[in-house]
Amino acid sequence: MDCYPRLGPEGCRYTDDPTVISDALAAFESTSFDRWDGRAGQLLLEELFPPEPMSGGYSAGVAFLDEDGNELAVVSEGGSSVPGGFLCVRRNDCVYLVEGTAMTEGDCLDSMISDACADDGLRPEWYEDADEPLDQLTWLLEDEWRARRGLSVSEA
After folding, report:
1. Chain-centre distance of CA 84, in angstroms?
2. Residues with Cβ < 8 Å from 50, sequence gap 6 or more?
3. How far apart are CA 87 and CA 144, in angstroms?
């Protein structure tokens, strides 16, 4: 799951918690998406008039990963690839927007972000001798999550 700026510059947190995963799958599994035909025009405009570097903004999303950490599907909100206020799935240059209001999906994403922010409050300041309370955390930084699963960081 990611959220910029609420989760800081790295913006991503990971979990293996079966309850969180099943709740997220339940929120998104019956969601309907429609292809957004505006993406081609947006890509053409970006090619003709490259965007200026940006500071600020908002983006959030949830990615479903396989056991090796590879993305299976990503649903996101915000960012430059979709119209504002929509949840979407993007595959290459094609964007699919969630049909309807996406209240359940948005509430699920908001809940995960809030929980990850709360977990960040449990993480000690980074001192060399600090023991990370990984057993108390549901949401982990990528390196923590990969270490817990026995995956190397270079596989990212």
Report:
1. 16
2. none
3. 28
Q: Provide the 8-state DSSP code for 14.
A: B
With cut-offs at 50, 70 and 90, classify the pLDDT of residue 78: low
For 17-62, write each residue's pLDDT tens digit.
Answer: 999 999 999 888 888 888 887 766 766 676 776 766 556 677 888 9
Model confidence pLDDT, tens digit, residues 102-127: 788 888 999 999 999 998 887 766 54
Q: How far is CA 83 from CA 36, 137, 142, in A?
A: 9, 34, 29
Token pair belonging to 132: 């990370």
H or E element that contains 32: none
| Dihedrals phi, psi of 48, to nearest 5 degrees | -70, -40
- Read off φ and ψ for residue 99, nearest 5 degrees: -75, 145
Q: Residue holding tokens 């950490």?
A: 69
Question: According to DSSP H, which parts of the chain are helical?
Answer: 18-28, 39-48, 103-122, 142-149
In DSSP terms, which residues pair with 98 in a beta bridge? Answer: 33
